[in-house]
Fold this protein.
Amino acid sequence: MASGSSTSWSSAASRMSIGRAGILCQVPLTLIVVVLSLTAPVLRPGLMADPTYELGFWLILILLALCVVVPWNELPRGTVLVIPVLDFVAIALLRTGAMDVQPALGVLAVFPVLWLMRSALPTWVALACSVGGSLLITAWPFLGSFDPTLLSSYAGALLLPVLMLCIGVTIRVMSAGADAREAELERKDRELTDLLNAAIDRERVLTAILNTVDVGLTAVDAHGSTTLTNRQQELFNRLSAGDDEHDTLVFGPDRVTPLPPDRRPVHRALTGETFADQLVWVGDGDAQRALSTAARPIKNADGGITGALVACSDVTELVEAVTAKDTFISNISHEFHAPLTSVLGYLELVLEDDHPLPAHLAGYVDVAGRNAERVLHLVADLLSTAGDRVRVHPRPVDLAAVIEMSVRSNRLRAQKNGVRLRTDTHSPLWTLIDPLRISQVLDNLLSNAIKYSPEGGLVIVRAEETESEINLHVDDRGMGMTEQEAGQVFSRFYRTPAARRADIDGAGLGLAITKSIVESHGGSIHCVSSPGKGSRFTVTLPVNGDVGRAPHDALEDSV
C-alpha cells in the first residue's frame, strides 16, 4: 500500500510539475506580447488596429488563462501540450498582423519550442512539431497564393524553422544531460536516505542492547567528554555525583580513600592503559556500591588515542560475600585455635605424667597429638589467608643464606621421598626482607616440589640478581599442570585434579599464603608448568627495599 501511495503521489507531482512548467513558458510569451501591444500606440501606431494581430493577441491571453484555469492533472497525460501547438498559431497571427512594423515576432517561437523539447514527447515528435510550427509562422502570409517572383521570400521562410530545429536539438541534448544529472542526484539521494535510515535503525538496536545489559558502558573522546552511555551507567553516575562537579564520590578498595583523578578508569584509559577488574566504590552510606571496571583506549589508524571505552559491573554482592567468607574463616579459625591448644597441652601432660602409660596407649596418645598439631597448623594457615595482607618485618638479610637454610631443613624430607635437592646461588644476595616469611615461602615451594616429584626426581633452587630485582626459581620434574591449572594454583583451597587423584596431602592454602607474603614484600610470583614435565615457580623481589606495600594495581584487583 505504501508503494502504491508513493507511486500515485509521484504521478500527481509529475503532472503538476508539467502544468507549472507550461505556465512558466506561457507567462513570458504573454508578457512580451502584452508589453508590445501596450506600447504600440506610441512606438508602432496602427499595430492594434490590424484584425489579424488582434486575433493573435487575444488567443495568447486565452491560452494563458487555459494554463491557469484548466485542471491539467486530471486530464490525460500530454493534453497540456495542446497549448504550445496553439502558441505557434497565435505567433503566426501576430507576425502576419505586424509584418509591416515588427516582422521579427517570429522569434517568439522559441517559447513553445522550449516547452515541447522539455516535454515527455519522443525527440523526433517534439522536433517535428517545433519545425512544423515554426514553418507555419513564416509561411502563414503566403498561404492561399503563390507568386513565382517571391521565391527568395519563400526560401527565407525556411530560416526560422532551421533555427528552431537547432535550438530544439540543443535544448534536448542539454535536457538529456540535465536529466541524467538529476537522475544521478536522485539515485544518490535515495542511497543517502537508505543509509541514513539504516544508520537510524542500527542506532535504535544499539541503544536497545546497551540499555538491556546490566553493565554500565561509557565512551569518551580524547578530551574525556562523554559521547555515549547507557542507562545502567547513568545510575552509577548519579551515585558517584557529589555536591558539586568537583566533588565526586569515587573511592578506592578500602571504601573511604577518595580515588585520585589520575587513577580513575577514564583517565587511565586515555593515557593508553588497558586493564580489567579495577575495583572502585561509588556513593556513600548504605547506597555505596562496588564496581569492577575495565577500560580500553580507542585508537585511530595512526595509533593515536581518540577516546576510550569503559565498562562497569556492579560486584557489591560478590565483594560482600568474599568479605563475609574471610570473616567467617577468621572467626572459626580463632574458635578452633584455643581448644586445640588446650588439647595439645593436656596430651603433653598425659605423656609426661609420673605414671607412664602402657606402650599401646602412649602410641594412641602420640597419634592424637600429631593429628591435633596438624589441625593446629591448618588453623594457622586459615588465619594467615583470612586477612587481606600478611604483616612483614623487613631487615637487611643475605637471601642466599636464607635459601641455604631452607634447603637444609627440607633435605631430610627429600631423602625420604627419594628426591635430590640442588642449589645454584651466588652469595651474598643482600636485600630488605622478612627472613621468617621468606623462609616460609621457600619451605612451601620446596615442600610442594618434593611432594609432587617422582622418586629419583630433582629439585633445583636458583637465584639471580639484576639491577632492580632478585629472581628466585624453584624447578621440579614432577607431574606438572596445564596452563589453566597453573593460573589458578595460587587461589585459596585450589588443588589440581591430578593431585586429588593421586591422594596427595594438602589443603590448597600453601601457595595462597606464599603469594600473599611475596606481594607484601612488593614482589610477585608466577608459575610455568607443563603436564608430565614439571613446574617452575618464580619469585621476583625488589632489591630497593620496597617492602610492606603491595603494588597499587594488585590491591585494586584483589577481589
About this structure: The CA atoms of residues 391 and 520 lie 7 Å apart. The two ends are 60 Å apart (CA to CA). The longest strand covers residues 289-299. The chain has 18 helices and 13 strands.
